[in-house]
Amino acid sequence: MTPWNITMVIGNGACGMGEFSYQDLLALFGIGGAHPGGIALTEQVLSGEKLTARTRVLDVGCGTGQTSAFLARTYGCQVTAVDMHPLMLEKAKMRFQKEDLPVKLLKGDANALPFAAGKFDLVLVESVTVFTDLAKSLREYTRVLRPGGILLDLEMTAERPLSVKEVQELQGVYGTKQVPTEAEWIARLQKAGFAGAEVVKGGTVASALPSDESSSGALPEFNLSDGIDPQVYAIWHRHQEVTETFKHRLGYRVYRAKKRLKS
């Protein structure tokens, strides 16, 4: 989960990004529900799905496990959660153990998911795909879904095609090589084997920023590690600058797509 809509400052630092990545920042801060709309948006989107105790759900890039825990606790789904970052996996494991939830937690890469074809009914992804090899990860989502299975993917989306310079500026902070527009996301989903791709929620980053009156209910969950290096705060500071600069040029969309019944 990626906090590219958050405006709250946590500490400061003047060091360069050095050896730390944006993904390290997410793990060290232990941020949950950091995408636009937070866990409230996730809950709203999931309420539109027919989830039961028999529904097999894969949470790709589960982070600290907030969404997986909600699914298991609220719907009793058969939840599998994967993430690549060891610290995220550690924090997710602690959450599931504390809440005594039967979530299956594995180390897994969105570009090469460690599952057999057709294993899941629903694949849920929140602010992850844009940081991957898009063609590979979207094909993997299709592969692990059963025919007719559903993908829900909340992703950073360009409100208009971005220039090479703009993409390079975002890449310098987030490592993203491209940020598709809504039309480009839908085209990529269709190419990967999905039918009926649609947007169920969305807006600009600016529209998702919490107001002074509502920020208390919109802030994400934090589970900070001890002894965070000042370089990590420098990444946070740069993230905040980019968020302000791009708040009208970037947005978010929740894409819902169904795997084709026949290839």
Automatic annotation (TrEMBL):
<dbReference type="InterPro" id="IPR029063">
    <property type="entry name" value="SAM-dependent_MTases_sf"/>
</dbReference>
<dbReference type="InterPro" id="IPR023576">
    <property type="entry name" value="UbiE/COQ5_MeTrFase_CS"/>
</dbReference>
<dbReference type="GO" id="GO:0032259">
    <property type="term" value="P:methylation"/>
</dbReference>
<feature type="domain" description="Methyltransferase">
    <location>
        <begin position="57"/>
        <end position="149"/>
    </location>
</feature>
<keyword id="KW-0949">S-adenosyl-L-methionine</keyword>
<dbReference type="Pfam" id="PF13649">
    <property type="entry name" value="Methyltransf_25"/>
</dbReference>
<protein>
    <recommendedName>
        <fullName>Methyltransferase domain-containing protein</fullName>
    </recommendedName>
</protein>
<dbReference type="GO" id="GO:0008168">
    <property type="term" value="F:methyltransferase activity"/>
</dbReference>
<dbReference type="InterPro" id="IPR041698">
    <property type="entry name" value="Methyltransf_25"/>
</dbReference>
<keyword id="KW-0489">Methyltransferase</keyword>
<keyword id="KW-0808">Transferase</keyword>
